[in-house]
Structure to design on (385 residues):
């Protein structure tokens, strides 16, 4: 019956989980709930008899945060339980006076459990958001093309923050790999704002001061016109494709690609 | 009373290797410059390598002084290579607009020596 209440109030539930999973969850919660209230403590959920139930609720809300449930859907899960309890009480308790006080007592208890569930749900969501933010920071892959030749194929939306981060990563990589040439590939960057572009020019100048020659490839027309407008000038060899960039780098480094004669 | 400079200036092959080891406040920077130029004149070397790996802060005065050293060294007849620039120092220098047009930045001592040898052969 609880399941019916949940599916009525949060009809997206079955987009994320199967009926069997929901069955297991509701069964589990009911079992632990019955165990907890058999202690006749209906008020204080911090007592040890509620520990198993709370652990279970924490697990459920964390799962739901991971699956992408909305706060309403998560709340509907636990508040739906209240409706179930009320119906059960109506059937079992005959004296209307007793019924009223029992409904109130259970209502308060479930509200406490709901708040607890909700709190852990928010915590889990925050943890997930943080994880995404971290993932966003590691989006500048470096390619070790050859000895002393590294390439950075930039992608995604570049802002000044990411560009500053990229500058540091690039300069560190230059020192670490003793890269005499570094290729910055902008093929996947359709456009960027003026401030970011200025940072890019600074990054390339910094690479030069470190003793590395920067080659910029794949500049889009839009980026090109922004660089021109800046009037600072990009002090780097610019080429159309990554392929040409690598070819140029080999020439600078005194390397030659020879076709094998068979 | 004059402090003892902790910057070392060593002769290597036909070149000088200058390594400032201290926080370069203005007086130290000037002394560093004068020391180098005196040694350049005395030793009659063909090149100068400035190793900045021991320097973690470069201010605008230090930046200008390096430029002056390079200009003077060029006039005396020596090419100037710069090595060991730290990442954050490189970023600061760019942000301050120090371009050091007459200094050849290189990745390491090996490359700097190779570069200066080639310059000498050419001149």
């Amino acid at each position: 019956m609880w399941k019916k209440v949940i599916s009525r109030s949060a009809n997206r539930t079955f987009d994320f989980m199967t009926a069997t999973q929901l069955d297991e969850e509701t069964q589990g919660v009911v079992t632990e709930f019955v165990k907890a209230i058999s202690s006749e403590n209906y008020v204080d959920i911090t007592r040890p008899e509620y520990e198993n139930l709370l652990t279970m609720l924490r697990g459920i809300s964390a799962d739901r945060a991971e699956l992408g449930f909305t706060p309403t859907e998560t709340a509907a899960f636990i508040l739906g339980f209240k409706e179930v309890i009320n119906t059960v009480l109506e059937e079992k308790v005959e004296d209307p006076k007793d019924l009223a006080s029992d409904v109130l007592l259970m209502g308060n208890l479930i509200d406490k459990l709901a708040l607890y569930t909700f709190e852990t749900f928010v915590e889990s969501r925050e943890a997930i958001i943080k994880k995404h933010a971290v993932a966003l920071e590691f989006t500048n892959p470096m390619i070790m093309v050859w000895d002393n030749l590294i390439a950075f194929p930039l992608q995604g939306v570049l802002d000044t923050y990411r560009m500053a981060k990229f500058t540091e990563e690039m300069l560190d990589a230059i020192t670490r790999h003793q890269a005499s040439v570094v290729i910055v590939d902008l093929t996947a960057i359709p456009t960027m704002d003026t401030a970011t572009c200025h940072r890019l020019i600074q990054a390339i100048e910094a690479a030069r001061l470190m003793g590395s020659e920067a080659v910029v490839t794949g500049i889009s027309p839009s980026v090109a016109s922004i660089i021109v407008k800046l009037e600072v000038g990009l002090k780097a060899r610019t080429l159309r494709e990554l392929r040409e960039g690598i070819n140029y780098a080999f020439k600078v480094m005194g390397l030659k690609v020879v076709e094998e004669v068979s | 009373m004059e402090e003892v400079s902790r910057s070392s200036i060593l002769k290597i092959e036909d070149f000088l290797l200058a390594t400032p080891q201290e926080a370069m406040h203005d007086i130290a920077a000037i002394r560093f410059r004068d020391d180098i130029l005196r040694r350049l004149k005395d030793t009659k070397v063909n090149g100068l390598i400035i190793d900045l790996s021991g320097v973690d802060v470069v201010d605008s005065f230090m930046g200008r002084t390096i430029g002056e050293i390079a200009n003077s060294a060029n006039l005396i007849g020596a090419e100037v290579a710069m090595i060991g620039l730290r990442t954050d120092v490189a970023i600061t220098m760019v942000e301050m607009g120090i371009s050091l047009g007459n200094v050849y930045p290189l990745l390491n001592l090996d490359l700097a020596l190779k570069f200066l040898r080639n310059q000498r052969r050419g001149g």
